[in-house]
Design brief:
- This protein is an alpha/beta fold.
- The protein has one domain: Aldolase class I (TIM Barrel).
- 49% of the residues lie in helices and 16% in strands.
- The chain has eleven helices and eight strands.
- It has an eight-stranded parallel beta barrel, surrounded by eight helices.
- Helix 5 packs across helix 6 and helix 10 crosses helix 11.
- The protein is globular, with a radius of gyration of 17 Å.
- The two termini are 15 Å apart.
- The relative contact order is 0.14.
- The chain binds pyridoxine-5'-phosphate.
- Pyridoxine-5'-phosphate (PXP) binds next to strand 8 and helix 10.
């Protein structure tokens, strides 16, 4: 079975917020992603509201036919918003105001009580809970103890390693293979604990295949690369190409 794709549409809102105007229309973008075959939509409601706004969440909740996954920081006021919107899933992520994008996984061990409390509140409302973590045994184990349903493995390091055209030769290739093994081992460990396994951050048409070949990964959250390509080919085509890249990676496994 191929993995599900949630398209992260934050950067449609980034363009809109550049002018604080009404276009491009986020809901239209979300519906076109669904029409192209996406399994769901992911958005990150940041505390600084740099792209997605609270109103977007309510509109998405009312209009989507598939699945809404909202990423947010572990902060009581953010969890309260989730309890009002009632998305299908909430993914807890770390957030630093100055960061350009999420910089890595959440340190679940260090923030254990706050994470556990947030998950308890979300689960009471029957929201599926996911935690964005680095592919590390301790973080996955802590996520399970905190009560999460899913872990989303951070692929940022893999993405950095595969950004350059030289990454598939010599010493660089060794590092890429090591990171794929780290992600694969983490996925297997998480699955063995009964956690659902997702992955994301920095994935592209070129590098998603090797990660899609990891059988335990059942969901991808991919944004920047799809929205970038949509400028040239349109959002439906951009989504279809990513679905195809994931399918191909799955088929090439082994
Ligand atoms: N998953 C998480 C938890 C993220 O924070 C992000 C970025 O918002 C993504 C996936 C998607 O990353 P990208 O936009 O690089 O595909």
């Amino acid at each position: 079975m191929s993995a599900r794709l949630n398209v992260n549409i934050d950067h449609v809102a980034t363009v809109r917020q550049a002018r604080r105007t009404i276009e491009p229309n986020l809901i239209a973008a979300a519906l076109l992603c669904e029409k192209a075959g996406a399994d769901g939509i992911t958005v990150h409601l940041r505390q600084d509201r740099r792209h997605i706004q609270d109103r977007d969440l309510f509109l998405l909740r009312q209009t989507l036919n598939t699945y809404l996954n909202v990423e947010m920081a572990v902060a009581p006021e953010m969890i309260s918003i989730a309890l009002e919107v009632l998305p299908n899933a909430v993914t807890l992520v770390p957030e630093r105001p100055e960061e350009i994008t999420t910089e890595g996984g959440l340190n679940v061990q260090e923030n254990f009580e706050a994470v556990r409390e947030a998950i308890l509140r979300l689960k009471e409302a029957r929201i599926f809970t996911s935690i964005f973590v680095n592919p590390e045994i301790e973080q996955i184990e802590a996520s399970k103890r905190a009560g999460a349903d899913q872990v989303e493995l951070c692929t940022a390091h893999y993405s950095e390693l595969t950004l350059s055209g030289n990454s598939f030769h010599g010493e660089a290739l060794g590092k890429v293979k090591e990171e794929i093994k780290r992600l694969s081992d983490a996925a297997k460990y998480a699955a063995s604990l009964g956690l659902v396994v997702a992955a994301g951050h920095g994935l592209t048409y070129r590098n998603v295949g090797a990660i899609a070949a990891i059988e335990e990964i059942s969901e991808f959250n991919i944004g920047h690369n799809i929205i970038s390509r949509s400028i040239f080919v349109g959002i439906e085509q951009a989504v279809r190409e990513m679905i195809q890249a994931i399918k191909q990676g799955r088929q090439n496994r082994g």
